[in-house]
Amino acid sequence: MDIDIASFGALVVIDEHSHRVELRSLWQQHSAVIVFVRHFG
């Protein structure tokens, strides 16, 4: 199962424009998803 990292990056950018304050936590969540997929996927 391949996840396009650029897609996650785009989501982070979109979230940054809407919720700048939450960017850091959102990025941590996306990073956790990527790690999870790499480990179990």
Automatic annotation (TrEMBL):
Name of the featured protein: Uncharacterized protein
